[in-house]
Amino acid sequence: MELLARIEQHFTASLEAKQRTFEVMGSRIVQAAERLVDSLRHGHKILVCGNGGSAADAQHFAAELVNRFEIERPGLAAIALTTDSSALTSIANDYAFEQVFARQVRALGRPGDLLLAISTSGHSSNILEAMAAARECGMMTVALTGRDGGSMASQLNENDLEIRASATATARIQEVHILVIHCLCDLVDQILFGNEGKV
Q: pTM of the predicted model, to two decimals?
């Protein structure tokens, strides 16, 4: 029964973190979806990056756009910067691990593209460098963070947007992030393709 009680604690903490985040960040999730749609409508693309579990979230988000989320629709332009092992390792080897995303952003990013930057701590140096590169390229950043937003929050400018998970534990932040990602996918589909989507 003790193990079952621990599971209940995890579920309860996850639900509470998601509810708090919705209450504080719900309108920002809508704004982020609108910015994603605006970029895609104008022929631009979404670049996505993160480390560890956030790298998996970056790939998950890009896959949902390029393939599909819950409705049949054309693929949408998104690239996870976490997937090319040759690029990642050569950049880390020749320059520094802090540059693994920034160098890709400078090579692939164009004005009007959007960077979705994901970090549970908000302090990942390679994410901060990617954000700086995006700004140089004339790109907007949507940042998924947690805790107090970390260094990412202070690096955002007036054109950028932060969606901060209302949680401190890494697992809870990641659980909120994947829900936010699914909300963004759903809203993009809804705005671009109408009422075919399901909740």
A: 0.95
Q: Which two tokens stand for residue 176?
A: 């909120």
Cα(118)–Cα(152) distance, integer angstroms: 10
| Tally of CB atoms within 10 A around 89 | 12
Distance CA 136, CA 111 (A): 9
List pLDDT tens digits, range 117-175.
999 999 999 999 999 999 999 999 999 999 999 999 999 999 999 999 999 999 999 99
Where are the strands (E) in 69-199, listed by range? 78-80, 114-118, 140-145, 161-164
Structural domains of the chain in order of their starting residue, each with its CATH number: 2-193 (3.40.50.10490)
In whole angstroms, give the CA distance from residue 91 to residue 128: 16
SS (H, E, C) 1-33: CHHHHHHHHHHHHHHHHHHHHHHHHHHHHHHHH
**Residue with token string 């947007």:** 161
